[in-house]
Amino acid sequence: MAAPRPAVAITLVLLGLGLGATLLRDQVPLGGAGAPPSASAPAREAAARLQNEQNTMDIVSRYEPGLVFISTANQVVRADPMGWMFGEGPQTEVQQGVGSGFFVNAQGDILTNYHVVAAENGVGAADSITVRVMGQAQAVPARVIGLAPQYDLALIRPVNLDKKWIRPIPLGNSDALKVGQKAVAMGAPFGLEFSVTEGIVSSTARQVPMGFSAGGQGITQKAIQTDAAINPGNSGGPLLDSGGNVIGINTQIYSPSGQAGAAQSAGVGFAIPINAARNLLPRLQAAGGGLVLAPTLGLEPGLVIRTRGGDLPAGLSVLSSAALADLGLPDSGLLLGRVEPGSPAAEAGLKGGRETRAFPGGRITLGGDVIVSADGQPVDALEDVQAVLLGKQEGDTVTLGIRRGGQGEPQQVRVTLSARAFQ
Description:
One of its GO terms (molecular function) is serine-type endopeptidase activity. By secondary structure, the protein is of the alpha+beta class.
């Protein structure tokens, strides 16, 4: 009856090998090949798992009440192209939206994404905004305090909400983040209110297009990357560290199709660093329901391309090599058509162009300076300059690399952001 035992032993060995090298590595001591494995190792591992679980549960129980579920409604006029055949005019329908936000102070101010509360056409706020907090059965209306489309941030405040429901979540320091830190995302993915996911900080300075520029496209700026699951409806919700401090505002994901946006999660999500929102908070609070714009230097691009959607500023790289050589311009950069008098750019000595020429598809103003870099980052469009300005405050400086009149070697010019830059 003892014969089957070797076969059983062999089967168990093969099974152990099938579990992978990690299991074997954890059970073989690194120092002293003959030493038996520590009997307390599995206990320590289990305790570590329980400690992390307890930390997550503590964060959720303490700070989830500060999470806000946001609903919006926009009246949209839809015209049926074949409606004239049946005597039907344009039809009005209500477009619903959902998102997340969180309280930042005892006054009830709620930070969220601009795109969560934006109008259907992306200009201004939605026709109706309501919010609901955890434990409250009914939603209450909310009003806009300030909108910052370029930053994809908005500040709203509930109307007639009992103060007992206002539970601010503390703001952390996103500049101190390290890759590998724990990250807890809260929000309402797919409208599933008050959901929580957990992961790590995958990158602290990923450059992705966010917000909305004058041309409608996103502005490349620094974002926190995380593998904590983020899906449509999570936008505007907080990303917290292991201390329960907000380190970012969940804003978008990288979809399986390879595009940043609002498709289903692929384990790559992005959050606006909370320090960027913290710096902008006083301006949002003072906006009186209006727009908060990124600081400007007082520049107008000298190259404009005509498109179906209207005239758009462009960088020199859109021109052919032959055209650039003929005009004596560099391969890339932002050509300055005009510098506003009294602006930070004018105070720094930047010059606009003198001669405007029209060509099939656009126009160009020649003779002005060409910006080729901003704070060391390459520049080929107005959005590239805006991206550097997003985190600036009054009194800060930006170092521009320019080619004077589009000619010669690049030289450095320091521009100070006066109060005028923020008006």
